[in-house]
Every structure is written in structure tokens, then in C-alpha cells.
Amino acid sequence: MQELESWVDPAYLKTVQDAFYLYLKEKTDYYHVEGKFIMGDGTSRWFLFSGKAVFDNQGNPTRAVGSIIDINDRKVAEEQLIAHEAMLRAVINNGLMHSILVDKDGNIVMYDEPINKIAEEFYESTMRPGMHLSKFVKQGDYPLFQSKIEEALANGPHKMEYCFTVDGEQYWYLLNFAPVGKTETTPADKVLVNTLEITQNKKAEQEVIKAKQLAEEVSRLKSNFLANMSHEIRTPLNGMIGLSNLLEKETELTKIRELVALQKQSNNRLLETLTSILNFARLESEFEGMPLNRVNVAEIVKRAYSSLKESAEVKHLTISLEVKEDVYCF
Q: Which of 151, 168, 197 is the last residue of a domain?
């Protein structure tokens, strides 16, 4: 035993000794323990120590037989697998994005705790390895997820946005599908799905779109308003100019008074137009609402006719008006 112990790597000597002496004490059917041997070149390799002791009538061991099997390749592969799994868990639990690891068929292999809490909150179900991903997506949407899993395995990482509604509230997530498990000899057989909530980003985008649409609508209304105001200002102004020209030539007092009355109507109309412009400016600045007044449309048409009649006559044009009844609107 002393010679055997001299071959064992000191880091594993106590483990080998404890296993052997425990076997002798409890007299089980056989003993076996894993440890490392020091090789001739100074390196160490994994071996499996196993065997059986022969006891005398007093229960004392007289000899032992056993075998030493080289298991170094298996243990190195196991250690690499454990290291890879630890690294994968570190990636999944990075805290920045929530993650689920699924196989090519959509079965859950691994997940982090935050995304499990999301599943409990929205789907009232706790995740477990082996459960299918379709249990945690909106009904009818899983074929899209399966296609993304297959695309990741075939072509590499890619992203998509996903939205679902709970109690009338929309929740948006950015999903990244990345293949996992690829080696030099085997293709990837799992997909890591990272999820990042972007609900607030989407709401901000929607607000920007609404603001843009509102600005475009205001700009359109302003252009229409200015075009209408140009017409509204020119109409009474032309009437005033035309009436002024007629007043210069007129000598009959009655006719002068009629022309002055018409000119006064044009003056009032121009004043109303300017008042409307000021009211619009106040409305745009959010100082006050645009006042709404009940107006007689027929009366407005009559006044417009009166202001244009004299100008038309000067130009030798015929203009007529027929209004059957008063019409009011706001």
C-alpha cells in the first residue's frame, strides 16, 4: 500500500486512502475510487482504483486484489463539459438580458430565474427543464419561434421583436436567437434565446410617430389657413380700393353715402379677418381656445356680394345674387 501511495498525486492521496480504509472497516463487497497517478514524466493522469480484499477468520485483511484503469480521457471530457456548462450558466445569468436555452425541437434545457418569474407572472406556470417553449408564448405564435430556432441552427444568430398583450397592456421584447453546441465535428444542436424588454422604447417610438403626424397635420392646416386668409384679406381690400376709386368720381351725395356704407362693410370684414388671424395665433400658442360664434351665412354672402358689385360694374361685369332664406351655423 505504501508503494501504491507513492504513485498517487498528493492532491488525491487522502481521498484514495480514506476510500480504501473505509472499505476495510465496513467490509463492503468491493472498493473503488477515482484519483490521479503521477507519471514518469512528472505529469498526472486520472485512474480508477477498484478491487477486493481477502479477510481471515478474525476479520483482518490478508491480501487485496484489484485493478487500475486509465480514465483520463473521460475525466478530462467531463471537466471540460462542467467548465462549458458553468460558462454557459454565467452567460445565461448575466443580468442584462434574460435567457432560455432550448434544443432544436423547442424543449427547454436551461433558463435564468428572472425569465422564470416572467413566466409565472404572465403565464401562471413555472418553467422546468424538458417543458416545451410553446407553453410560454402566445397561442398560435409558436410556429414563428420554431422557424427562428431552425434559422439560427442553419444560418447563425438573428433577432426579432415580439409583442404580447396581457389585460389590455402591450409588452414588447427584443429576442436574439444564437446557436450553441457547435464543435469542429458536430453542428449546433441548441439555441440560446436572449430576451430584452423594450416596451418603453416602443412607447417612445409611438409617441414620436404621433408627434410627427401631429406636426404634419398642423403644418397642413397652417398652409390651408394662410391660403384662405390670403383670399379673405384680398376680397374686402379689393372692395375698398374699388369703392375708393368710385368715390373720387362720384358727386351725388346719396350715391356717395351708399358707397361709403359699402366701404364700411369691407372695412369691417377686413377687421374680422385680422381678428381671426390673431385668435388663431393665440390658439396655436395655447393661450386660449378659438371662440365659436353663431353666424348668418346668408348675411355674409350678401355683404360679399355688395363689396364685389361695384368692382364688377367698373370692369363692366355682370354679377347677381339670390338668397332665399337666412342660414346659420357655427
A: 197
Of residues 68, 2, 7, 66, the one with CA closest to residue 34:
68
The answer to whether 119 touches 146, Cβ cutoff 8 Å, is no
Secondary structure (DSSP) of 133-164: GGGGS-TT-HHHHHHHHHHHHHH--EEEEEEE
Distance between CA atoms of residues 133 and 143, nearest Å: 11
**CATH number for the domain that contains residue 142:** 3.30.450.20
250, 213 Cβ separation under 8 angstroms: no
310: domain CATH number is: 1.10.287.130
Cell matching residue 8: 498517487
Q: Is the pTM here over 0.85, yes or no?
A: no
- Residue 330 three-state SS: coil
- How far apart CA 229 and CA 221 sit, in angstroms, is 12
Domain count for the chain: 3
Q: Which amino acid is at 158?
A: H
Residue 72: CB atoms within 10 A of its CB come to 16
**Helix-helix angle 297-314:199-249, to 10 degrees:** 50
Domain span at residue 112 reads 93-197
State the pLDDT at residue 150.
93
* Residues contacting residue 269 through CB under 8 Å, at least 6 positions apart: 232, 235, 236, 239, 303, 304, 307
Each residue's pLDDT tens digit, 148-159:
999 999 998 888
